[in-house]
Write a structure and sequence with these properties.
Layout: H1 4-24, H2 28-31, E1 38-44, H3 56-62, E2 66-71, E3 77-83, H4 97-114, E4 118-125, E5 128-135, H5 138-149, H6 163-173, E6 179-184, H7 193-202, E7 204-211, H8 213-216, E8 223-227, E9 234-238, H9 242-266, E10 269-274, H10 279-293
């Protein structure tokens, strides 16, 4: 009997992986490479070099910045840190943010395992977390798909997502330098910026933010009862009120600015994926943007 994770993976292999294979011509298999630890030499600093690799002793002697070069590993270990909190279950269209995050995670895992890389998973929500150690192969992707498809525990009412705790968990779990994908809507209390900076200081971090169009533009539906999916608070609002719409637009703009500045300060590769976007097209853009970031 074919399981749900097997059906999901088979569909993604047909709809996403094969399309990417034709468009990217295999470059996704070598874009994210292992990070070596064997010292190979020195060279003058160039724009874009990682400042953490500057050899300050040589720089002071030669009065010119020099960076250390390391032998590059062939294998790569990647982690998927996936937010499955209640706010991720929102969706105004055919697919919610949780579905998009699940499909994106499985597609990324399959693309990485095709390059014989290892992939692990940290699934986090308000009630707990699940950790799947990194392994390679199709069987590992099926296991990750099963974990992401499992129903989360009932969330405690009035508990917003603790994104800082999620990032702290990732930092304490992932010891060796790895490629880390953080997949979340980044909806939660302030305070996650500093843990993200610490995580990015040790690892190469790619933040993929999942958004829904209805979160940024309130549809005019008259009187509507809206509920916070995480706190359970309900409010009756007039969606046609011009003052309310203007206030919401200002709040959205302020939120986007805060998140953009926080991601910029962390120095991570940041990407936005909407629930109404075409997944293969967005993955192609993501990989190419990440190539330019490197």
């Amino acid at each position: 009997m074919v399981t749900a994770p097997e059906r999901l993976l088979y569909r993604l292999e047909l709809q996403v992986v094969r399309r990417l294979d034709g468009v990217l011509q295999g470059s996704y298999r070598t874009l994210y490479r292992g990070i070596g630890t064997d010292f190979a030499g020195l060279r003058p600093y160039q724009d874009g070099d990682d400042v953490r690799h500057i050899d300050w002793n040589v720089t002071s002697r030669l009065d010119e910045p020099h960076v250390r070069i390391f032998t590059e590993d062939r294998d790569l270990t990647a982690w998927l840190v996936v937010d499955t909190s209640p706010s991720m279950r929102f969706g105004s269209g055919a697919a919610g943010k949780d579905v998009v995050a699940q499909e994106l995670s499985v597609a990324l895992a399959r693309l990485l395992t095709l390059g014989r890389h290892r992939v692990g998973l940290i699934r986090y929500d308000n009630t707990g977390h699940r950790i799947v150690p990194p392994r390679s192969g199709r069987a590992q992707v099926l296991r990750l798909a099963g974990e992401l498809a499992a129903e989360p525990d009932a969330a405690r009412p009035g508990t917003p997502t603790d994104l800082a705790a999620m990032l702290h968990l990732a930092a304490s779990t992932i010891r060796r330098r790895c490629l880390v994908f953080v997949i979340s809507d980044l909806i939660g209390p302030a305070g996650w910026q500093r843990p993200l900076i610490r995580l990015a200081h040790r690892h190469e971090v790619v933040v993929i933010r999942i958004v829904d169009p209805a979160e940024n533009a309130l549809p005019d539906q008259g009187l509507v009862m809206v509920e916070d999916s995480e706190t359970g608070e309900q409010v009756l609002v007039d969606t046609g009120d011009p003052e309310l719409r203007a206030a919401l637009d200002a709040e959205v703009a302020s939120r986007e600015q805060r998140i953009g500045e926080a991601l910029g300060r962390a120095g991570v590769s940041a990407h936005l994926v909407s629930t109404d976007a075409d997944l293969p097209t967005r993955l192609v853009q993501l990989v190419r943007q990440s190539g330019r970031h490197r």
